[in-house]
Amino acid sequence: MHDLTDVTIRSTSVSEMDNNVYLITAKATGAQVLIDAADDAPAIRRLIADGAGDADRAAKLALIVTTHSHWDHVRALAEIVGETGARTAAGAPDVSDIAVPTDVPLDHGDVGEFDGFTLEAISLRGHTPGSIALVYRDPHGPAHLFTGDSLFPGGVGNTGGDGQRFESLYNDVVERIFNRFDDDTIVHPGHGKPTTLGAERPSLPSWRSRGW
Question: Most buried of 52, 90, 155, 171, CB within 10 angstroms?
């Protein structure tokens, strides 16, 4: 857990795919955003309940954001939406590939204003056409990036060996993430362990040369 000044960031790993589910909770207001209802609804319920304990007021799940449309990131989406009534969001080009209706199609640069924090959507085209990252800019510390399957420790996401898709994703990751955010920015990927931009930046040329 990241216990920040204004919010907490909790996560749980679910399924055989080691999918990360993230929850941001505003301490002062209880507003919550869930990122990727990937699988295992009971584990996600526990995550939401644990986050509620971080807030000074009754917690309310305001939004569930899906970072991209792949099946392993949406398996619990319908159940959690049905239980909580939360609105849903995803990158606009991926909306048609997600069975659960999307209330808020996201474009690059869209900003969500929640009661106690904001999140900006960053389009990272290549893993899927509508893949997005979300950034929380902590006023008191480094930024936090939730990158789905577009950026991991050791490289960008899978583009199926398609050179054009790789170029698209690599260029977006460089221009929209590495060129905009500082080295202490914390990266929370869709699978596996977190990293920082500073830890990954020296490897950018090798990622480009290898093509994945």
Answer: 90
For residue 16, count other CB atoms closer than 10 A to its CB.
7
Strands 19-26 and 104-106: unpaired
Nearest to 124 by CA among 189, 193, 77, 72: 189
The domains located in the chain, with CATH, are 2-210 (3.60.15.10)
Model confidence over 90-116: pLDDT tens digits?
999 999 999 999 999 999 999 999 999
The model carries a pTM of: 0.97
Q: What is the DSSP string of 19-81?
A: EEEEEEEETTT-EEEEE---S-HHHHHHHHHHHHTT-SS--EEEEEEES---GGGSTTHHHHH
Average pLDDT over residues 69-94: 97
Instruction: Tell me which residue has tokens 């899978």.
Output: 158
Task: Quote the CA–CA distance of 192 and 152 in Å, as a whole number.
Answer: 8
